[in-house]
Amino acid sequence: MSSRLNRALGPWQLMFTGLSAMIGSGWLFGAERAASTAGPAAILAWLLGAFIALVIAAMATELGGMFPVAGGMVRYANLTHGPLVGFMAAGANWLSIVSVVPVEAEASVQYMSSWPFSWARGMYHDGVLSPGGLAAAAVLVVVYFLLNFWGVRFFARFNSAITVFKLIVPATTAVLLMASSFHGGNLTGAETGGFMPYGLSGVLTAVATSGIVFAFNGFQSPLNLAGEARNPGRSIPFAVIGSVATATVIYLLLQCAYLGAVRPGAGGWATLSFSSPFAQLAIAFNLNWVAVLLYFDAFLAPSGAGATHLASSTRMTLGMQRNGTLPDLLGAIHPEYGVPRPALWFNLGAAYIFLFCFRGWGILAAVISVCTVISYLMLPISALALRGTLADRPRPVRVPVMRVTGALAFMFSSLLLYWARWPLSGDIILLMLLLLPLYLWCRRQDSWAQHRAAARHAIWFMVYLPTIAALSYAGSPQFGGHGWIPYGWDLIVVAGVSLLFCAWGVRSAVAAPDLSLMDEADDGLPDIGH
User: Fold this and answer.
1) Domains along the chain with CATH numbers
2) Which one, of 156, 139, 136, lies nearest residue 147 by Cα?
3) How far apart are CA 216 and CA 210, in angstroms?
4) Is residue 68 over pLDDT 80?
5) Which of these, 366, 279, 302, lies nearest to 36 by C-alpha position?
6) Spatial contact of 446 and 402, defined as CB atoms under 8 Å apart
7) Would you say residue 185 has pLDDT above 90?
């Protein structure tokens, strides 16, 4: 085994990894779940989600251009704030990506359950997969594994080939549904409580937990595969921004088509329930050939996303090993195929754990969304800190008005965490704190002085997590809280507190970052110009 990755990905291939990760199971179910939470205002939820994703992605793009390394998303915090914060941020990030692998398989099987065969219908009941459905999903996860096993070139060719198809099918579905049946009154909500029947809180919660953050999380894939990009300084911004913008158009078309096609009735949008939303709507409007195409794409789209997220999470595992918080074994790379196969096997095992613990798309999508938000928190803090500590470092991408943009990115991340609603927001924060014993075991060889230094740079983060949990507990009932802070004021309080923690986090950064932690030689990569 060697430590060399292959720089084999061009800008379009890199962008297709982002698109493939975004246009997965999210398009199959996201429109329905967003509508059930926000009603017609789900359109605003997608626009707000896209805006927040672009602001946060801008931070990641600047960092990725500066340090085009494998698993970049789990390495920036380690550079700027030491191993403890680095491990916590990396842990949340890794959880948010590796758990997507089984959720894509679950989505395919859930769509399969609406096939007109008794054996298929038995795979999904009451929101969870049956034992037969679990077995089918487990086989699909193995397929994702094999697509990564024989190298990044093989994976990239497969991914590029199917991504174009994955874009055509949802766009075609949306246009045909709108042409077949579009009730414009649905968007105004004249019979179901208006355009915003569940209030602004419904829109905000939809962004956080209905699959919107989950859908846009795919922008991380180009950043985690940056160590295999031929010209990262140009490829990374093209891939990240291009994938988010394209996915936004697709998701808005789908949401409009869903809102216009269904008739919610007296029970409102929250009472609607489909096992395979767009396929069932296509059949209802006699678009049977579209339904067949959707059933096929229900395997293809999630498979591309599942394979992409497995590739991304594998590079994250490699990055965490390079951070010194995972065993050296996981850093070995196959000399012929240039793939970190031990890390790939490790992530396969983790995917199976999530598969058997969370047996429904909706359950796991909400958990993933909150883990994703926590993983975003360190991006603006690291980017802001490096503007001071590495001011002269070349930046192929330079975010304008960084002080304002970075503060907004951290504020949006904090608000997303709050919008996820109590107790889910508190449960995931508790999970992050439970990672501490694992960190201590991985860093058991460190001296007391090293532990003390790591803790000094991490105090702000350790205080931030329970503070947001406490605000979520005390917040308004609209977000699951106990109403001690009135609705409206709770949003202002969370935003203000987040800005204070943003300033504290930037001041807590390492004064002189150790650039050897991000050295390309650390990855065994050739020294190439940009």
Assistant:
1) 11-265+274-361+397-405 (1.20.1740.10)
2) 156
3) 12
4) no
5) 366
6) no
7) no
Helix (DSSP H) and strand (DSSP E) numbers for the chain = 23, 2
**pLDDT given at position 495:** 95
Q: What is the mean pLDDT of residues 308-329?
A: 77
Tokens of 438: 């694992």
The 3-state secondary structure of 141-199, one letter per residue: HHHHHHHHHCCHHHHHHHHHHHHHHHHHHHHHHHHHHHHHCCCHHHHHCCCCCCCCCCH
The residue type found at 453 is A
Angle at the Cα of 44 from the Cα atoms of 38 and 48, rounded to 5 degrees: 115
Decide if 479 contacts 424 (C-beta within 8 A). Answer: no
Task: Give the CA-trace dihedral at 379, 381, 382, 387, to 10 degrees.
Answer: 120
Handedness of CA 421, 437, 411, 234 (dihedral sign): negative
Residue 375 scores a pLDDT above 70: yes
Strand partners, 128: 125
What is the distance between the alpha carbons of residues 156 and 221, in angstroms, rounded to a whole number? Answer: 12
Please give the residue that has the higher pLDDT: either 476 or 222. Answer: 476
Q: Which residue bears the tokens 């007391």?
A: 448
Tell me if 490 sits within 8 A of 479, measured CB to CB: yes
Of 111, 96, 97, whose CA–CA distance to 29 is shortest?
A: 111
| pLDDT score of 216 | 82
Over range 241-251, report the average pLDDT.
89
User: What is the pLDDT, as a whole number, of residue 526?
Assistant: 32
Q: Are the CB atoms for 136 and 109 separated by under 8 Å? A: yes
The predicted-structure confidence for 512-526, as pLDDT tens digits, reads as follows: 888 887 764 444 333
Q: Which residues contact 290 (CB under 8 A, 6 or more apart)?
A: 172, 173, 176, 282
Q: What is the mean pLDDT of the chain?
A: 79
